[in-house]
Design brief:
It is a single chain. By secondary structure, this protein is an alpha/beta fold. The chain has helices at 5-12, 40-51, 58-69, 71-82, 110-117, 159-168, 170-182, 195-208, 225-234, 243-249; strands at residues 16-20, 29-30, 85-86, 101-104, 122-125, 136-140, 184-188, 215-218, 236-239. 35% of the residues are buried. The model has no long low-confidence stretch (mean pLDDT 87).
């Protein structure tokens, strides 16, 4: 699988918005050997061990843990693990590209650290009004471990919190939607199971149809019939590569 020529040209021209999902963090390193990078399933197991809660999914375990121990305690536990994540070699390929904007549903600081070490300006937007554009704008749609605590939006761990993020932080989503009207979009590391991502795409498709810049989904995982149908309906082109191979190939 190769990257479409048009997508490569649009990235170089600064006409592409990059949207990072959890799969884009796969391969990240850790500064603490006792706290290696965790998959969603592994984080669920850590929460189960720490708080003595059994559940079928990360979402259900997180919801029970928050109800029993409070949001701050659960977020602090998660941040304690994610804080140790640092970029791998391929993450440093991201600041080398001319992205129009970057968005993510991730909470960690891997991208911030790759930009900082590359001495490239990155402006993180978690809540409130749009910050001044003194670098590449980075929308963190589901919160950030560097912005937890009082008067900060929660980490969107449960489906309800993900849905509430659409309402509580409308400026971020409106910015994304406005950019999507005029820029190509590339989703890297998504399974398209989170409702707010599919909700945004459906809203854009309803308003504009396919008369908008191209969109691409980068994932090597086999796509089930439901996801294949969704991508086809929305006019999103599938690129069968993982995040590492994609960024290495740019």
């Amino acid at each position: 699988m190769t990257i479409p020529t048009q997508l490569q040209a649009d990235i170089k021209a600064g006409k592409v918005v990059l949207f990072l999902g959890s799969g884009a963090t796969a391969g990240a390193l850790s500064r603490d050997l006792l706290k290696p990078p965790l998959t969603g399933k592994e984080l669920q197991e850590k929460l189960t061990t720490e708080f003595g809660i059994v559940g079928d999914t990360l979402e259900s375990v997180s919801a029970f843990a928050e109800s029993l121990h409070g949001r701050d305690v659960v977020e602090a536990f998660i941040a304690n693990y994610l804080e140790n994540l640092i970029p791998n070699d391929f993450h440093f390929k991201i600041p080398k590209q001319n992205w129009a904007m970057i968005a993510t549903t991730n909470y960690n600081l891997v991208l911030e650290r790759s930009y900082e070490q590359s001495k490239k300006p990155l402006v993180t937007w978690v809540s409130g009004q749009k910050p001044k554009n003194l670098g590449t704008l980075y929308l963190k749609m589901h919160g950030c471990i560097a912005h937890i605590g009082m008067n900060q939006p929660p980490l969107a761990l449960t489906q309800l919190q993900m849905d509430c993020a659409l309402v509580s932080q409308p400026a971020l989503f409106l910015e994304y939607i406005e950019m999507a009207k005029t820029h190509s979009m590339v989703y890297v590391g998504f399974g398209f199971g989170r409702s707010n991502i599919t909700w945004i795409e459906k809203q854009l498709h309803q308003a504009l149809g396919n008369a908008r810049p191209p969109r691409y989904a980068v994932t090597r995982k086999p796509l089930n019939a439901q996801v294949q149908d969704f991508l086809k309906t929305q006019g999103i082109k599938h690129i069968g590569m993982d995040a590492k191979d994609f960024f290495d190939a740019l």
